[in-house]
Structure formats: structure tokens, C-alpha cells
Amino acid sequence: MWDQPAPELRPTVRPNAAGMDLAELKALVAALGESPFRAGQLHHGLYRMRWTSWEQFTNLSKPLRARLEAEVDLAWPAIQESAASGDGSTKHAFLMTDGALVEGVHMPYGKRTTLCLSSQVGCAMGCTFCATGLMGIKRNLSAGEIAGQVVAMLNAHGHGTEEAVNLVFMGMGEPLHNLDNLMKAFALLTDPKGLGIAPWRITVSTSGLVTGIQRLGACKPRPRLALSLNATTDDYRSRIMPVNRVWNLEALATTLETFPLESGERITLEYVLLKDVTDSLEDGKRLAAFAARFPAKVNLIPFNPHEGSGFEPPTEERVGELCGLLAGRGITVSVRRSRGQDVAGACGQLVRERGKA
Ligand code: SAH
Ligand code: SF4
């Protein structure tokens, strides 16, 4: 269960440079009897240049490259399968070194690109509407496996870091159930000498682990926070999100009221609309009241159907009514048009469908 830590990636005999931070790279070069300066060159190659093989490290001598190759792996997550959608987004299945598969999505919107990332293999939270939840938890992703999804997608789609890249942890897994690796990945992703992604361009979405939210709030710098609210009464939320039986709506609201926000920062409230379960106009009113308690914006997400879930998406008419109701109460609201729906868009669905094939 999620009150226990998830298993970690089992280390192999050879270390993997992909995912090492500067301190670890320094230890690596020291063990090889090299100057600490080489660690900076390795760091540059890994995170600024996003090199994927030792041959590409032309900033190092050939003999050193050969020694590195003999001792250390350089294994970023590999793109095992990609599915391009008519709307321009591409869903990728990433193969990890131990055979685990997770998903990421590349979503270009004009000049900016959003990458949706996974934080765990499967998920322990057991939300009943979610394909990943149905898989259960396999293990945590390491920091290198988390940051590596960004490296792999930027390499596959030919982006420079100068283009605006937003990251959202809305793929597989509960990021706050893997907070140590998540924050190490956050440091790799935001390092100005490496990938250089601004902290405020990174959003972590949680199902509502209060202790994790509090730990995240104490981190500086930290990513932005999104909460998957998904229901407006404890009765319904506990039915579809078991975590609500531990931290209910009032516990969440008081935690978010005291979350230390930067000026102008707002917490995103994600709200999956399940037809006839969580999409009533009364839900809309309670959602507006919840969102008014702290600086928030609401993102309505029509349910993305998948086999065996037993839920249905709301009508377009109801989505419009709820949008109008929230906006009428002064709440900033947007609707997430599930991108890549034709390629098994919502979290966990591509990997789950592959697993069945
Ligand atoms: N575990 C985290 C982040 C991953 S889930 C969390 O729950 O917040 C990312 C978002 O996808 C969540 O808001 C979740 O409620 C939503 N989601 C999951 N399955 C979905 C589905 N079938 N259709 C629409 N949204 C879904
Ligand atoms: Fe896990 Fe999020 Fe899916 Fe819930 S919605 S099962 S927390 S991935």
C-alpha cells in the first residue's frame, strides 16, 4: 500500500551515468583517478548536450572514453514504441533497463511544448477510474529514469532547451509517493548547467498525500502543485480515490490553505468528470467553494474511457454548464481536451493495452 515506500530499481553490477548528479560524477571520476574537472565535462555531455553514447563525448580523450565505457553504462530510458496522434501529440512507451515500461507524452502547442512524465511503474493509490491504478504498483522510477524521459523525448523530437518546455507529472504513478527520486530528478532537470528547465515550468500532480504535499511545500526551489480533486463529497471521493479515507477533503483544503505559495502562484485543481458520478451541478457549486479557499485554478478533465473502468465521460453540454458555473463564481477554469485520445491518451492506457496484447 501507499503508506509503505514502493520498491526501488534494483542496481545492476555496473553503475549507470545517466541520472548521476555532479557529486556522483565527481566520485566516479575520482575512482578512475581523473581530475574533478572531468565530472563537469561528463555533466555537460549528459544534461546539456543530451548525449546518449560514450562515442559522443568528444570533450573527453579517447582513452578516457574507453575506460568509461568499460566501467560505466550510459543507459537512458529507450523509446520502445511511439504512437502519434492526429492532434500533434505523440505518446511514447519507455523501456527501462530492467524491462519495466512507462509512458510519456510529447505535446507541442505552437512555440511551447508540454511533456507528460511518469514517476513510478504502476501506482499504489488504486483510484478506480484510472488505468494505472488498476495495474497496482511495481516500483519507483529512479531520478535518472524520470529525467531520462525528458532527455529521450527532447532527443526524439529535436528540441533545444532554449525552447519553452513545460513538464507535468501526470503520467503513470503518484509523484509524492516517490518524492526523494522526484526531487533529485527535479534538481537534474532545473540545473542551469544542464537541462535548465525553470522550476515554475514543472508541475507535480498528486492524488492528495498530505504529508507529501507538506514536504514538497518545504522544498526550495520546488515544482508547482496540482491536486487531483475529482469529487466534492467525502463519500464519493473515498469511493473513487481510496487515499481520501486517510486525508479527506477538509484535511486537503486546510493543507492547501497553508501551502507556501510564491506571489502570483496558484494551485491547479484537476477534476475528472465522471458522468452521473461527479459531474452534477451541485458538484460544480461545491468545487467552486473548495477552489475559493486558496489561490486556485480549475482544470476540468472529461473522463477518458478505457476498457473495464465502468465509468463514462460527461456530455459536452454538462462540461459547458460546469465551466460556466465556475467562471460565473469567479473561478479560473479550463477544460483539458484529452490529447492523444485516439492513441490511448489518459495515463497508463498505452502500457496497459500493450500488456494485454
Ligand atoms: N497520480 C497523480 C498523477 C498522475 S494521474 C494524480 O493522481 O494526480 C494524472 C491525472 O490524470 C489525474 O488528475 C487523474 O485524476 C487523471 N486521470 C486518470 N485516469 C484518467 C482517465 N481515465 N480520464 C481522465 N483523467 C484521468
Ligand atoms: Fe495513481 Fe494518479 Fe491513477 Fe490515482 S489517478 S491511480 S494516484 S496515477
Question: How does this structure look, described?
Answer:
With 357 residues, the protein is of the alpha/beta class. It has 2 domains: 22-71, DNA polymerase, domain 1; 78-354, Aldolase class I (TIM Barrel, Alpha-Beta Barrel), CATH 3.20.20.70. The protein contains 12 helices and 12 strands. It has a 10-stranded mixed beta sheet with strand order 1-2-3-4-7-8-9-10-11-12, with helices on one face. It has a two-stranded antiparallel ribbon with strand order 5-6. Helix 7 (210-217) links the parallel strand 8 and strand 9 (224-228). Helix 5 packs across helix 6. It is elongated, with a radius of gyration of 21 Å.
CATH architecture of the largest domain: Alpha-Beta Barrel
Q: How do the strands line up in the largest sheet?
A: 1-2-3-4-7-8-9-10-11-12
Count of beta strands:
12
Q: Portion of residues in helices? A: 25-40%
Distinct helical segment count: 12
What fraction strand?
15-25%
Q: Are there runs of 5+ residues with pLDDT below 50, and where?
A: 342-348, 352-357
CATH domain topology of the largest domain? TIM Barrel
Task: Work out the radius of gyration.
Answer: 21 Å
Give the overall shape, derived from the CA principal axes.
elongated
What is the C-level CATH assignment of the largest domain?
A: Alpha Beta
Small-molecule components bound: S-adenosyl-L-homocysteine, iron/sulfur cluster
Going by CATH, what is the homologous superfamily of the largest domain?
A: Aldolase class I
Largest sheet: 10 strands, mixed
- End-to-end Cα distance: 28 Å
Supply the helix-strand structural class: alpha/beta
| Oligomeric state of shown chains | single chain
Helix/strand order:
HHHEEEEEHEHEHEHEHHEHEHEH
